[in-house]
Design brief:
alpha/beta; Rossmann fold; seven-stranded parallel sheet; four-stranded mixed sheet; 11 strands; about 45% helix; binds nicotinamide-adenine-dinucleotide; binds magnesium ion; manganese; manganese ion binding
Amino acid sequence: MTGSLRSLTVLGATGSIGASTLDLIRRNRDEWRVVALTAHSNAAELAKLAREFGAEVAVVADEVHLPALREALAGSGIEAAGGPAALIEAAARGADVTVAAIVGCAGLAPTMAAIEQGGIIALANKEALVSAGEVMMAAVARHGATLLPIDSEHNAIFQCLTGNNHAHVRWITLTASGGPFRDWSWERLSAATPAEAVRHPNWDMGAKISVDSATMFNKGLELIEAYHLFPVGLDKLRIIVHPQSVVHSMVEYRDGSTLAQLGPSDMRVPIASALAWPARMDTPCAPLDLAEIGELTFRKPDEVRFPATRLAREAAQAGGAIPAVLNAANEIAVAAFLGGQISFTRISAQVEDVLGSYAPPPPGSLSDVLEVDTEARARARVLVTST
Ligand code: NAD
Ligand code: MG
């Protein structure tokens, strides 16, 4: 990396991606200046991070926690703010790099505010891109922002595409671990508990994405994410199950060459790739020891037990507002599953039901997307209570 100081904002600083990002920054403190750090409600942890990194401003999205944040930051000279408008305002201050690491469509408006400043957006928050699709990509182009994917698969594809022409791509293959239930029968799946679903075999992640990995909605959302990031056409995007999570994704070219990116199951690798881009930086991650790993295996996904990737492909095909409906319905279903209100197999069934009942016209703006999101959530909640 160059010697000049770069500015950084982390939206969702207290989460799993936020922690991995700040771990890398901590090891390179003299290269970064922190503008804004945000969290949903954990004021104590946010204040601790803001003090450690000398942030300009700290924001709790849930205003109820603003007094606690103010108290925890007293005397530090760090601004404390709360509520959704403050979150957007903090993102709109702009930074050389904004790490979008809020979970869910809740991250969409602040991510769009950062895009409008035209810097680098290191995107982990896939739900925002899935929901806003064309609206977000148009804003990226209009404001000259640079969208760098942190999601490990998309970061791998981004690296495999660098220096190559999209027109020569034959296939882009997203790898999927298959999640903790990849070998479970339908009967066993219907009795799966939240504790079992969040215990991912390879990755240590937030609760929502862990459940998404178990249902395969994570791969479904990633298919839609890839569709927007890498415009080669939906018919060139494939999914393969790869339980070891070593090959993070692949690109096959017309001459028969397949390029893949491999690495440890540690999100600091793709995060570092985005933070240092187009250069490279050191990470503390263990080197890849393929002799120790021994075997890499691959198999086709099973869309009967895991309908999520089929639903996502259909939503991407329909386009417009439909992926936002799928995402919102999934967010509500996952929360209901984690809250013990619906069974594991009801998640995809409920998403399919909402998709069948609500097909709004394509959104033309951020507020259109948020309207679709709100309505789809309301419909999904009705299904939860009537189940
Ligand atoms: P997490 O639950 O650990 O953290 C989420 C962060 O967002 C926290 O800082 C939380 O305070 C904040 N947040 C939650 N709800 C919010 C709201 N309503 N408003 C404002 N802020 C809110 O989640 P995570 O695992 O770090 O995932 C974050 C995003 O990155 C997700 O979109 C996920 O799909 C994506 N992602 C995560 C991983 C991973 O390994 N964890 C890998 C790839 C992609
Ligand atoms: Mg991923």
